[in-house]
User: What shape does this take?
Amino acid sequence: MSTKTDEKVEKYVQDVKDKIGGNPDVDLLREVTKACGPSIFRADAETIASSSESELETVKKNFLVKKLGLKDDEKLDVGLNAVLEKYGKSNRNKYRAVVYYLLTKHFKKESVFK
Assistant: This one.
């Protein structure tokens, strides 16, 4: 029997395949999804507004610095922009779990979730 989290993970796997291409690391994506907590079940929190500076600051502070343990410097902006570019700037629905997954891969911090 699949859980609500499983359903979300399936949706995110399909999103990665459709918008980025290739097959994502499903186990890593599942762990990142779990780390997002209950926010992924709220429509307004499930996605990231990449045009919002305050939203991007929140991603940097709460995920990149606190969760991944990265230093708050210009590399974070470069990485965040690279990931958003890869995901597609024009793509309005950027799922938080997918963005976090891509950031985890970009900064090679998969060990945080293993």
In short: The chain has one domain: 4-113. The longest helix spans residues 4-19.
